[in-house]
Design brief:
The protein has 117 residues and is α+β, with helices and mostly antiparallel strands. The protein has helices at residues 10-16, 55-61, 63-79, and strands spanning 23-26, 30-34, 42-48, 85-88, 104-108. A five-stranded antiparallel sheet has the order 1-2-3-5-4, with helices on one face. Helix 2 (55-61) packs across helix 3 (63-79).
């Protein structure tokens, strides 16, 4: 079923509390936690609690939860006092996606170049 937890999914395990994470925010539908391999002074991942493989599937399958994720990225940026920041949804292995549970990267706290590599 779309949205159901997947046994072999790392981020579903974080949602379930079976894998530890440094959680910075939680709502009924989302969790935000610090990336284990930060690429910037602030590097927080915002994920839906429901399992969708990537942002496109989340937006198609549960648009209201996709909106919750976006709202939470703003809340993280505010809490981290970021006036500039970047949101990234790596989608597909060629774009660097390594965890197949939708997540927004919130990156900030340093200058960010555009276009990215
Ligand atoms: P992706 O490459 O799929 O866009 O992003 C996955 C992110 O998850 C990476 O930035 C990676 O550092 C992070 N990550 C992988 N394993 C863990 C973990 O066990 N805990 C946390 N907090 N982040 C993780
Ligand atoms: Zn999952």
């Amino acid at each position: 079923m779309p949205g159901e937890p997947q046994d072999d999914c790392l981020f579903c395990e974080i949602v379930a509390g079976r894998v530890p994470a440094t959680v910075v925010r939680e709502t009924d539908t989302t969790v935000a936690f610090r990336d284990i391999n930060p690429q910037a002074p602030t590097h927080v991942l915002v994920i839906p609690k429901a399992h969708y493989a990537n942002a496109a599937e989340l937006a198609a399958g549960a648009p209201e939860i996709a909106a919750d994720v976006l709202r939470e990225t703003k809340a993280v940026a505010d809490e981290e006092k970021l006036d500039s920041y970047r949101l990234v949804f790596n989608t597909g292995s060629g774009a660097g996606q390594t965890v197949w549970h939708a997540h927004a990267h919130v990156l900030g706290g340093r200058g960010l170049q555009w276009p990215p590599g």
